[in-house]
């Protein structure tokens, strides 16, 4: 079984004018840690009850496949199956009350839990394409296909990772994937774009 849960981003963070990206970065990094800690504790609680469990972390670790970034587990799609919302046009989970402001975490467990009902109706308005129009790198097309690689390369920045990549000794000792999952985590990654979130009418 898969357990999914989430914490919403306050509207005040997304719409803080010129401080929106810095507040968004700070809020997300704290919530990522909080959700990961909850996942760890939930696994230990379930295993104390006799159910083997594994945390599904919010962001990292990531895998590099054919020079593209991939999450280990597709949490948004699992959260859709668990009834937390529906994956919308820009590839993010849309919740009926919180829009795309929900950050999700999860746990895989052998515990025999009763499944919750999936939301059958689309949360995203079918005639709205604001996120597609607002994307500065055209990473979203009108079929709902998202180029997460283009999105991540534009929207995320890790100055520390860039500095380490220039160190030939380190790059010769470790794979890029190892360095990525060691360095570009927690507060070592900042955000340079969240346009799809700020233009979405569900968030406003």
Overview of the molecule:
The chain has helices spanning 11-14, 20-48, 75-81, 130-134, 148-155, 159-165, 168-173, 176-183, 195-199; strands spanning 2-8, 53-56, 62-65, 68-71, 86-87, 93-94, 102-109, 156-157, 190-191. With 204 residues, the chain is an alpha+beta fold. The protein has one domain. The strands form four sheets. It has a three-stranded antiparallel sheet, sandwiched between helices. It has a two-stranded antiparallel sheet with strand order 3-4. A hairpin with a 2-residue loop joins strand 3 (62-65) and strand 4 (68-71).
Would you kindly provide a brief summary of this structure?
With 204 residues, the protein is of the alpha+beta class. 39% of the residues lie in helices and 17% in strands.
């Amino acid at each position: 079984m898969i357990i999914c849960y989430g914490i919403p981003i306050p509207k005040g963070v997304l719409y803080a004018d010129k401080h929106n990206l810095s507040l968004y970065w700070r809020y997300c990094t704290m919530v990522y840690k909080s959700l990961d800690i909850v996942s760890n504790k939930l696994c230990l609680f379930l295993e104390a009850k006799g159910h083997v469990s594994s945390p599904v972390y919010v962001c990292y670790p990531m895998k590099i496949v054919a020079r593209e970034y991939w999450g280990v587990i597709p949490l948004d799609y699992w959260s859709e199956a668990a009834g937390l919302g529906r994956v919308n046009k820009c590839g993010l989970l849309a919740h009926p009350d919180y829009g795309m402001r929900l950050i999700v975490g999860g746990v895989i467990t052998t515990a025999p839990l009763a499944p919750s009902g999936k939301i059958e109706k689309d949360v995203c308005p079918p005639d709205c394409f604001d996120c597609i129009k607002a994307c500065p790198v055209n990473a979203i097309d009108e079929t709902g296909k998202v180029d997460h690689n283009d999105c991540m390369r534009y929207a995320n920045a890790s100055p520390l990772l860039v500095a380490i990549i220039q160190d030939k000794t380190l790059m010769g000792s470790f794979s890029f994937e190892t360095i990525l999952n060691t360095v570009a985590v927690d507060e070592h990654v900042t955000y340079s774009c969240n346009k799809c979130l700020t233009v979405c009418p569900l968030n406003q």
